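Sanity check

After download, print the first record. It should look like this:
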Amino acid sequence: MLKSDLYLASASPRRRELLRQIGVNFSLLTVEVDETPAANEVPSDYVERLARSKACAGWLKSRSQERLPVLGADTTVVLNGQIMGKPSGRSEAIAMLQRLSGNEHSVYSAVALAYQDRVESRVVSSRVSFCVLSLEECEEYWSTGEPVDKAGSYAIQGYAAVFVSKIEGSYSSVVGLPLMETATLLKDFEVPIWDRNIV
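Expected structure tokens:
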């Protein structure tokens, strides 16, 4: 078994896949962070705060294990300045999708790395345009189960790809982890990428 070079403080399968895509050998850490936006908190500050909080929480949790850099990340969907988190249920998910229908929205992703007394972070903003969705399409999409734990109630890398008419910015950031910025941080912390043994 390969020795890990990094801890990932995230339960997201998408982030695991993206890290493997660039050949990073990592282990998982589960952390609990309150994701409630602060009063008047702008989206870029919100995602950066959460990414840094997750990385720092992971670093504290790693004290009983091998000390490695910890990566935290967060992604949110924003329409007309309003943060759209994960839906509480079917009705909220369908309402979110109907608001995104035929509109352009922003997706903010932040990535942070913590090691010893150092924490660095990056924030990326992308623009995504949706085609017009019928109520039936929104209901059918909900029935796939995909929107349940997704910010904005959709996954661009999944079935919702058919809703996207245009994207400006980083595709990987919209999925959940901006890979160029992540790779830059990893290099700064001397965490290797492009390990050809990673599957």
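If your output differs, re-run the checksum step. Summary of this record's structure: Helices lie at 13-21, 43-61, 90-100, 135-143, 171-175, 179-188.
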